[in-house]
Amino acid sequence: MSGPSIPPQKKMTGMFGHPVAENPIDRMFDAVYAHYGLNWQFWKCDIGSVEDLPMAIGGAKALGFSGFCITVPYKIASIPCLDLVDDDVRVIGAANYVTFEDGRIIGHNNDGKGVVKAIQKVTPIAGKRVAMLGAGGAGRAMAVEIARAGAGRLTVITRRESQGREVADLVHRATGVPTEWLGWKGTVTLPQGTQILLNATHLGAAPELESVPVEWNSIANDTTVVDVITNPRMTPFLDAARGKGCAVVDGVEMLVQLAMQIFEAWTSIAPDEEVFQRAVTAALAE
Question: Whole-prediction pTM value?
Answer without folding.
Answer: 0.90
